[in-house]
Amino acid sequence: MDLKTLAIIVVAAPLLGAIGVGAIGLRGLRSRSHWLVLAGVLVALISAWQIHSRVHDLTQLKYQVDEQGRAREDTPKVQEFADQGIKYRVDTQSLSFPIYQWIDGGGKFSIFNVDFRIDPLTCVMLLTVLSVSFLVVVYSVGYMRDHHGHAEHGYERFFAFLGLFVFSMCLLVLAGNFLVLYVGWELVGLSSYLLIGFYYQKPEAAAAAKKAFIVNRIGDFGFGLAIFLIFNTFGTLDYDRVFQHVIAGTTLGGGVLEPGRVTIIALLLFCGAMGKSAQLPLHVWLPDAMEGPTPVSALIHAATMVTAGVYMVARCGVIFASSATAMTVVACIGGVTAIFAASIALTQFDMKRILAFSTLSQLGYMFLGLGVGAFDSAIFHLFTHAYFKALLFLGAGSVMHAMHGVIDIRRFGGLRRAMPITANTFLIGGLALAGCPLLAGFWSKDEIVHAALASNMPWLGWMALVTALMTAFYTFRMIFLAFYGRERLPAGVEHAHENGKWMTVPLMALTIGAVFAGYVGVTMKSSGFLGFLEPHGGFHHFLASVVDPAKARLHAVHAEAHGGHWLMWLSGGLFLIGMLTARYIYLRHPAIAHAAAVASGPVHKLLYNKYYVDELFDLAIVRPLRKLGALCVGIDQYFINGILWIISAIPRAVGFGLRGLQSGGMQSYATGMVVGVIAIVLWVLIKA
Amino acid sequence: MDICFALVCGSSVLIEGGRHGFGDMNSAVGLMLVGAVLFGIGVVGFLCRRNLIIMFLCTEVMFQGVLLNLIGAGRLWNNLHGQVFGLFVLVIAAVEAGLGLAIVVMLFRRRGTLDAERWATMRG
């Protein structure tokens, strides 16, 4: 099959699955409706793997190099792809092709094409998204049932939405221009809204869905403006052409591109990323999004959709790298979000919320990496994070399912013996998140910290290290409280038990990812960490063609990719300190935790209440807006309605005067007629 | 009251006829005068009576008055148009009478009375 067909299959298969479930999953076959989506995602995953292996083959080819060291564009491969209608660019390793023309510009312009673009970054995203999606769909089959195996209310709706989400996310990453990107961007927002509000009978879920959508809209407003500005400046929305313009420093018509304009474009784009990836001012929706079913939290609000912002910034790396201001903003917001969210996670008791804040924190890491120019490291962290965070969320869901919906770690504990698979996979996921050496999170996080320390803002790197310590602490606080110690069960649960195969198999599969995903980005070298491991491996070489143009635009001097082994020892040590402290406090001396909470008084309260950001927004934005709304209602009711009342009073007064004539009696009408006739006759006679 | 009115009308006809002089009286004028009297009687009856059937009959009387006027006008101009037209009006009046009576019967069945005041429900 040619590449075009494969790309279309990747997008179409989940969509067809979703439509199929929506169409036939209504009666009788309800509890079997997962098969269609499962098959759709599996087909998409296989196609994505095919695409990946082809792109991988391309990156392995050696090209003839011209005198400037660039790959020559006249290799036979280019012609081969051109015959299939695919534009192949050797320097960026990108394959782009239009699927169809959306709006025909009469051959003058082709801005509104539905273009797809396949390059190494797309491949990484597709594989991450689809492999996690597939496992989450499998898991959902077990999760969305009660303890007797009956499908929950809305079972088919759930799978239809899940299929819609996978379709949207694939569209987002396959997009070849900003317009299609925006369409995918909004579609994932829609599916996120639908799935957060899946239990729409619950007022909290409905409110959370609304909040997520509105906060995302604020970010998307900036994103939309960025797209307008890009079109206004460059006259095109096609990635390739926009990036070429930025690199050359020209605008449409050959004018000079002012640096201020690039900064504004980058900041507006980042505004969209902040909304979708829940960075600091716009993070408030993500913890509330945990009202959705747990598989949704795992897939959309941890592994895939929230990383769309990271993907977008990495994709537009050239634009961001052209503006030092924008890079500083991205790095600072990322670093601050990381430590901010991690500190909140220290005090929370809801397992899913802890994981949500941890997701915020890890996304902060990714933006930190992007902001200091380590685009490939950020994507690498995105890749590893997807597996271990999905694993942790699914593990939390498994606990929640066994505990009949209780997720507060104060109300249960010591589940290790009752739920061995969940406990052990969760532990491995936790190790990966906390940055245990040799597990996935360790490699990717350290690269980002390394890049931050080597940048011109090393304090961000130190902040990231403090965050790493906090991460280890809160992760193991959660693990020790939930799985270790004396067995405690919430009221109404007689005995905890492990969940069925549908749920445990995806957990085990994700464990493999959590352990080994890091090794695609590591090389074996005799001089490296522990004597043989060195960061920056095959993963980074694969992505090199995508991120190199952006990296080349950064003027800051960059530390060499290798080395920095002291940092690995340091972060390994921080992991150990965090874990052992949590063990000491929560397993050995539980009184300390309480005493510390009391002793730190207002600080604990501040953290426990999430820095009062929600309350602040409520006070500063929501209530003034409500007041404004009330004012508008007042104006409408008293002023505008008053004017209308006056206008409408005229016909009413006329009617009031004429009402007496309408007596309903036949004689009076007839009299009127006769009088009228007589009057007319007299008039005629007198005139004559 | 109808009779009083008829007397008034009749006397006014006589006075009018006297003024024009009965001697060279053109029969057209007489016809038209009688038609006017009939029309007047119909109008007054229609306005004064509340029984639906009587009111309906009064409209018929008005009809006949108009008819006589048409014939009289034909006489006046010495042609047959008036009479031919009169024939048509007669036929239409017959048809209309059938319809009108049917309506009156339906109205009677609805309310069990022929009082026109009982239908004064379309008051503004």
Which structural class do you get from the secondary structure elements of chain B?
mainly alpha
Share of helix of chain B, binned: over 70%
Low-pLDDT windows of residues of chain A: none
Q: Average pLDDT value of chain B?
A: 82
Order of helices and strands of chain B: HHHH
Known CATH architecture of chain B: Orthogonal Bundle
CATH class annotation of chain B: Mainly Alpha
Q: Portion of residues in helices of chain A?
A: 55-70%
Count of DSSP strands of chain A: 5
Kindly report how far apart the N and C termini of chain A lie: 99 Å
Q: What integer value in Å does the Rg of chain A equal?
A: 31 Å
Class per helix and strand makeup of chain A: mainly alpha
Content of β-strand of chain A: under 5%
Could you report the average pLDDT of chain A, rounded to the nearest whole number?
A: 87
Number of helices of chain B: 4
> Which value, in Å, is the CA radius of gyration of chain B?
18 Å
* Number of domain units of chain B: 1
Biggest sheet record of chain B: none
What's the oligomerization state?
heterodimer
Total beta strand runs of chain B: 0
